[in-house]
Amino acid sequence: MEQFPAPKKHPQKTNKKRLTNEQVKLLETSFNFNNKLDSTRKSQLAQELGVPARQIAIWYQNKRARWRNQSLETEHKVLQHRLERVSSDKNRLEREVERLKTELAKAKDLLVSSKTMNYASLPSFSSSCDEVGSSSLLGDHGDFYVCFDDHQFDHKSDGHDFFAR
């Protein structure tokens, strides 16, 4: 006949009692003051609360683990918020770059078209460089002065090169 091994006897576990709200508050206060527990403080808390020192040590260990997790979650949220802000700034800057590229292309087109402008299409100006003629080529932006010298075109407005950018 086969014999089964005798069941192993487990040491009897002591029913540890749940901590009361007042006990938890005292432990929280102690933890906030110092999250590391030395043996003297552990014995003192165990005696004050009327619970085994091992239960105090385990409570501290669990509390540190929860505290680290909360710290990581908070840090993650802060980093996530920064990432969203940076991504938003990046998108805004990319749109600004595209807008500026469009403006630059328009300015280049204007410059090219103004350099290739037919001289015959210009309004008549004084042929003497001593006299200044004005036209409304620039509209409200000011006067455009032209001086002809042997078919050379001087494209300067108020002493500044009109086409230079």
TrEMBL record:
Q: What is this protein called?
A: Homeobox-leucine zipper protein
Q: Does the keyword Transcription regulation apply?
A: yes
Species this protein is from: Cynara cardunculus var. scolymus
Tell me, which GO biological process terms does this entry list? positive regulation of DNA-templated transcription; response to absence of light; response to blue light
Entry's localization field: Nucleus
SUPFAM superfamilies noted in UniProt = Homeodomain-like (SSF46689)
List the GO molecular function terms: DNA-binding transcription factor activity, RNA polymerase II-specific; transcription cis-regulatory region binding
Q: Which residues form a coiled coil?
A: 69-110
Role description:
Transcription factor.
SMART domains from the UniProt entry:
HOX (SM00389)
Q: Which family does it belong to?
A: Belongs to the HD-ZIP homeobox family. Class I subfamily.
Domain Homeobox residue range list: 10-70
Q: Which InterPro entries match?
A: HD, HDZip_class_I_plant, Homeobox_CS, Homeodomain-like_sf, HTH_motif
Read off the Gene3D superfamilies from this record. Answer: Homeodomain-like
PANTHER family for this protein: HOMEOBOX-LEUCINE ZIPPER PROTEIN, HOMEOBOX-LEUCINE ZIPPER PROTEIN ATHB-52
Q: Which residues bind DNA?
A: 12-71
Database matches in CDD domains? homeodomain (cd00086)
What is one GO cellular-component annotation here?
Answer: nucleus
Q: Compositional bias (Basic residues) spans?
A: 7-18
Q: Where is this region: Disordered?
A: 1-21
Q: What is its main location?
A: nucleus
**What keywords would UniProt list here?**
Coiled coil, DNA-binding, Homeobox, Nucleus, Transcription, Transcription regulation
